[in-house]
Model the fold of this input.
Amino acid sequence: MDTTLSEGPAETDSATESETAAPTAPATAPAPVHPRMRDASGRRRLSLNLIYGWYIRPVIWRLMNPGRTPEDYYAETINNRLRRGRKHPAIGGNARAVRAPTELLDILLGYGLQPRHAVVDYGCGSFRLGKALIEYLEPGRYWGLDPVDEFLQAGIQLLEPELLAEKRPNPRLITPENLAEARQAAPDFIISWHVCSKVPASRLPDYFGKIIALMGPDSVALVHFPEAAQRTRQSCFSWAQSREGIAAAIHRVDPSLAVRFAPVTDQINRGIRQTMVEIRRP
Done:
């Protein structure tokens, strides 16, 4: 079973985050109390909508859909939302970058990205951040991997026909065969943005395992995650994670990997910092 979820919405808290965040495995254990579930004095504030969205709805879906995956839940929830004409901040024509559409490109340029390099965008969604990379890279050098075909197709439809014809990006579903094909492209960089926070803790080694399997001897993997002192629930489907938890998941895959952390921004919101982990082979 693939453990990866697609690119999620803005990592900062908002009034609608509980509706718009990308779903992942149904939660079965209690989570830290989110700030919106407390009143002004800090006491727990009952919210039936949050209780239903965070705990009850995922369990009902799981019981009604035995054998289906978190990726199915993810796709079904967002596709139903889009079919009802509601906007989504991460997928489709109304997708918006959290900071800038060139965020990934800007970060990779700081790592020495050249147009000739091959880049795998793991959990690319509908290319809200990948488009700038497609425009910059030489033809055929961008690989956009996602578990949801509807999101890839939405992204393709949003790209200009001239850009598609000139740059020939490689949108692929996350399957063993397509992962092997992307690995054969010898990627210089593997990036995964707004994805890690949607992966259940028990499946983090599998998520990182697929990313690490794409790496050649000189590849660099960069993975964004919301950082907290301990694993903390941010919304109905999103968690912040500690550096220690991220490093442990990576080293369960390969203890020899070199791991380094760096801030994505200097801002801290309710104790959460936006961080990326850099992974290299020894």
About this structure: Confidence is low (pLDDT under 50) at residues 1-44.
